[in-house]
Amino acid sequence: MLDWDTLRSACDGCHRCPLGQTRTNLVFGVGNPEAEILFVGEGPGEQEDLRGEPFVGKAGILLDKMLACIGMSRTENVYIANIVKCRPPRNRDPLPEERQACIPYLRAQTKLIRPKIIVCLGKVAATTLIDPDFSIMRSHGVWYERKGYWMIATFHPAALLRNESLKRDAYSDLLRIRAKYDEILSSEIKKGPPDESDGQKEETEK
Ligand code: URA
Asked: How many domains in the chain?
């Protein structure tokens, strides 16, 4: 398994797809590398490309507020990454071949973090990680258990900025995420300290 430094260097030098030629900065991810929850967006936008950090533009400000409303923050209890680590031109959706090229890096990050919960922010993340036919309108807020991870999708914060009427549903998704997190933590406390076999989780695949 790759360690963080090796993974970071591999990403920094990556030219597996054409997005590597047009990026200003690679956007690796941010947060607690031991977080129980991994949030996955789509790909960097303009501000993220300039600063090298995910979700720092308008959608990022909203994401920080969403996290705060369930008592979380990007520096403490979550890790935030994207399906692709380089900005797609004019913020278009990443192409299937760009997602395929980049996803091994997200898998490697997931193996290192070993989160209990993976939250897909929007359609690109949900169709890449949960189900290619995933419909956010129909299936947001639904839990899926995949290879040892609890997975759920909710609305991308950029979609909430475009359509405020979705915020109520997004709030109820966030409450479900917080409830699952509390449930997992309390069952861990009851179980006691982990034994050796708890380190054997498999990666999430698609
Ligand atoms: N939108 C995303 O999906 N990811 C970011 O990092 C920023 C905006």
From this structure: 1
Which ligand 1 atom lies nearest to the CA of residue 157? Answer: 1
Residue 202 in any domain: the answer is no
- Is the distance from the beta carbon of residue 29 to the nearest atom of ligand 1 less than 6 Å? no
DSSP secondary structure string for all residues of 31-73: E-TT-SEEEEES---HHHHHHTSSS-SHHHHHHHHHHHTTT--
Domain that holds residue 84: 4-192
> Which of ligand 1's atoms lies nearest the C-alpha of 156?
3
Instruction: Give nearest CA residue, ligand 1 atom 7.
Output: 55
pLDDT tens-digit map of 30-74: 999 999 999 999 999 999 999 999 999 999 999 999 999 999 999
Tens of pLDDT, residue by residue over 113-163, are: 999 999 999 999 999 999 999 999 999 999 999 999 999 999 999 999 999
Q: Does the reported pTM lie above 0.90?
A: yes
